[in-house]
Amino acid sequence: MADTIKLLDVVALTVDLPEYNLWRGQVGTVVEILAGGTAFEVEFSDREGRTYESLGLRSDQVMVLHYEPITVYPTPATEPA
Question: How many whole angstroms separate alpha carbon 42 and alpha carbon 12?
Fold first, then answer.
């Protein structure tokens, strides 16, 4: 995964989780890092900030949302030997 998920990152679901009434695209906040950084407790809240679901998710079930342009640094060219 290209993004390193961190505490308090805003993420969106990449999968449907009908058993929790959560659907691809719903937005939540990472509130805890689990299993050495391979899973994350994500809290889903309404517009008033009331939590309606909180559950552990794997990194392949969410994507980090970005609100600013991402600066990609070019890889330096290697000199011929």
Answer: 10
